[in-house]
Fold:
Amino acid sequence: MLKILKELNYDVTFVSANEFNYDDSIKTLQDNGIECLYAPFYNSILEIIEKNEYAFVVLSRSTIALKYLWSIRQLLPLAKIIFMVHDLAYLRELREAENTSKNLDTISHDFFKAQELHCINSADLSLVLSSKEQAMLANLCPKANIGLINFIMELHNIIPKFEYRKDILFIGGFLHSPNVDAVLYFIKSIFPIIQKQNPDLKFYIIGQSPPPEIEKLVNENIILLNQVPNIDHHLESIRLTVAPLRYGAGAKGKVATSISYGVPAIVTSIANEGMGLTHENEVLIANTEIEFAKAILKLYNNEQLWNKMSKACTEFAKLNYSVASAKDNIQKLIDNLTEQGNH
Structure:
């Protein structure tokens, strides 16, 4: 998104909220012509706001937005604030309580929901990735300006054939509780059903910071790769990806990534929510252990269906995840925001 804003001829500055550390991520942004501010040149975000003039300020996630909304309004009264929602954390927390043994702290949940909705109501534009959440927020925050953006993906035009692929893959960081639950659920409840039909099939897991309860389940058929520097090789050789999420919120990057590589995914309704993907086109949707296992085996062994779905994935990605489509959408959202300010 930062690169797209740069290509749209905006001067773009990036500031990290985590103590202004310089790392390889900052260097990558700088190599792409994006100004980055960090210590010792600046020591706080408030200092940056006080010393610079910005037409737009993009705040990512409610924990960050809450800290700086008021100060930005006071110090940059003409700036338009854009709030990146990513997903509704209060909704994810509620669904976790409904699908696991975790108790919902009603007071803290209501407070957190109020904070998120406050950020959405306070921003000039809030951006969501899920059409489902856009519709929900239209009811919860009827006066708020809610825009929808898609994931922005590098598209892959050369898709290795079915015959050169094997095994199944899950992608997701394990600092995010829905991913931990999904992998444990898959290994314990779904994978054993699959192994009865296909004992040689392997399940690969890519994700940062796997917890001990997942690490101890690793064996010759369950391979934990942790975080990998480049995912290309894995998605060019895997036959299917899975997203057996039982709870969560927002659009799912793991599913969009699979689609962008032309790899069909087996997903739950939660994993598919708000993404516009359709059953037996880009994905197979299954919500019980038996259904999920049957869907994997059906697609894994059906070259004709796999080819049809892989082609649908590629077409969907070109239409929805390309840089060109994102650039047009982002420009329209900003233009509309600017026009509102001129009335």
